[in-house]
Amino acid sequence: MYPTPVDAYGRYEPVTLKNIHRHPAYRRLPESLRRELEVAAQVLPFRTNPYVLDELIDWDRAPEDPIFQLVFPQRGMLDSETYARVEAALTSGDREALVEAVWNARRAMNPHPAGQLTHNVPELDGRKLDGLQHKYAETVLFFPAGGQTCHAYCTYCFRWAQFVGDRELKFESSQVDDLVRYLRAHPEVTDVLVTGGDPMVMKTRLLARYLEPLLEVETLRTIRIGSKSLAYWPMRFTTDPDAAEVLRLFERVAAAGKQLAFMAHFSHPRELETEQVQAAIQNLLATGAVVRTQAPLIRHVNDDADVWAEKWRREVRLGLIPYYMFVERDTGPKRYFEVPLAEAQRIFADAYRQVSGLARTVRGPSMSAFPGKVRVVGTAEVAGEKVFVLEFLQARDPAWVGRPFFAKFSEEATWLDELEPALGEKRFFFEG
Ligand SMILES: *Cc1c(COP(=O)(O)O)cnc(C)c1O
Ligand code: SF4
Questions:
Q1: 394 and 281, same structural domain?
Q2: Which of 190, 236, 326, 360 suits a disulfide with 296, CB 3.0-4.6 Å?
Q3: pTM of the full predicted structure?
Q4: Are both 145 and 40 inside the same structural domain?
Q5: CB of 141 sitting under 6 A from ligand 1
Q6: Which of 116, 143, 228, 337 to mutate to test the pocket of ligand 2 (most atoms within 8 A of CB)?
Q7: Ligand 1 centroid from CA 222, angstroms
């Protein structure tokens, strides 16, 4: 077991570029591979922990191992020119050149897709409420200031801009008072989705300060928590110093008549295999929480129908409810991870066909695009033309939901903005 120095608050020491060289299995990787990681991690966030390293990664299969790909930045995630520039700056020891190369690379990676910074920020009394996003009528997203990091970072994460110390790009808020006032002014909002980063990185006392005021809002039905902690640090719900306290907090949510909907991010069935995660799930479910699962479809990590089928089967066996399969957003190292929509839909359908109806609660593949969440339902031939059949699962205008529409079939398209209307239409119906 990797030594895990723990501080006075019971926190483990995160594993970063500074200390990864102490890990025995990592040290056995070829030096060239370690160098590639060091270069790529100048640009992309790298942070992991002993549980991921020792319980989830199969080191005999690195670097192809899916969990290794999930947390270790790879050379192929940077284009070759960027890689060369960053490596040269790193080798030369020229700090300024390195900082410049790194920031150019980051800026080129579209850190805030789908209008996150400029759109959907709600207002109260003419003031913008930072740390909130309100896109779909019934659900408000809340980004608590204390939850803007994670127990480990996913290499494909579209929120990576928040983790790399970019103060300007970072949006966060400790304004739970604003949230409560906003909810009171908007009784149509039934759900608050607490997200990040990962809200479960917060100590329970801090999390309680965010959640408890919400229990007083009568129109609110559901508190969702978007989290990868079950996959990356299940001890949050078992042996951490404030694990019992967080379970009590979730029980208080249920006792107040609200549903705690835990939106668990699981990328691969291996994350569901360990004793630790299974104990954590049991504890979580015993509080009355409902656990739904979601993840993006990612090349090198889970681009395989059997992997998804196995993931959903295991989830159902453990009492979880499969919820979403997402298409990777157009940010970060997208070229490395992207799966074309046509292939994504085949993977989804192949997996879906293999599982019992109890796992067919899952929906996807879904793009969280500017106009809404768009699902690729399938392909069809209409009037002699091969088309994608698409639908909105969520939309800026709720009237768009439940209205199938068509795009020209493409084997290469990876996102909504690469699709063209089919059947002689000039624009999609939602483009007005
Ligand atoms: C996905 C999403 C939600 C929640 O959508 P559900 O389909 O209800 O899970 C809310 N707000 C935003 C911005 C989202 O992307
Ligand atoms: S856990 Fe979520 S927010 Fe954190 S790095 Fe992974 S995808 Fe991003």
A1: no
A2: 326
A3: 0.94
A4: no
A5: yes
A6: 228
A7: 13
Separation CA 152–CA 144 (nearest Å): 18
User: What is the Å distance from ligand 2's center to 266 Cα?
Assistant: 11
Q: Are residue 400 and residue 333 in the same domain, yes or no? A: no
Tokens coding 394: 């969520």
Cβ neighbours for 56, distance < 8 A, ≥ 6 positions apart: 67, 231, 270, 271, 274
Of 107, 138, 165, the residue that ends a domain is: 107
Same domain, 187 and 296: yes
Shortest-distance ligand to the CA of residue 119? 1
CA atoms within 13 A on the CB side of 194: 28
Which residue reads 């670097």 in tokens? 63
CA of 111 to the centre of ligand 2 (A): 14
Residues 158 and 258 in one domain: yes
Which residue among 112, 135, 192 is best mutated to probe the pocket of ligand 1, counting the most ligand atoms within 8 A of its Cβ? 135
Alpha helices in 318-356 (DSSP H): 334-337, 341-354
The residues of the chain scoring below 50 in pLDDT are 1-3, 5, 8, 167-173
| Sole residue written with tokens 């509080």 | 287
Nearest CA owner, ligand 1 atom 5 = 394
Ligand nearest to the CA of 156: 2
Give the span between the Cα atoms of 296 and 278, in whole angstroms.
22
Q: Name the closest-CA residue to atom 10, ligand 1.
A: 139
Rounded to a whole number, what is the distance in angstroms from the first to the last CA of the chain?
A: 59
User: Are residues 319 and 390 located together in one domain of the fold?
Assistant: no
Output DSSP code: residue 421.
Answer: B
Instruction: Please check whether residue 300 is in contact with residue 337, taking contact to mean a CB–CB distance below 8 angstroms.
Output: yes
Nearest alpha-carbon partner for 103 in 56, 144, 43, 45: 43
pLDDT, tens digit (0-9, with 9 covering 90-100), for 195-234: 988 999 999 999 999 999 999 999 999 999 999 999 999 9
Cβ atoms of 247 and 235 closer than 8 Å:
no
DSSP 358: G
Q: Please count the structural domains in the chain.
A: 3
Evaluate whether residue 378 is within a structural domain.
yes
**Location of structure tokens 């999930």:** 70
pLDDT in tens, 11-38: 677 899 999 999 999 999 999 999 999 9
- At residue 234, what are phi and psi to the nearest 5 degrees? -65, -20
Q: How far is CA 153 from CA 49, 298, 342, in A?
A: 10, 15, 28
How far apart (Å, rounded) are the C-alpha atoms in residues 48 and 61?
A: 18
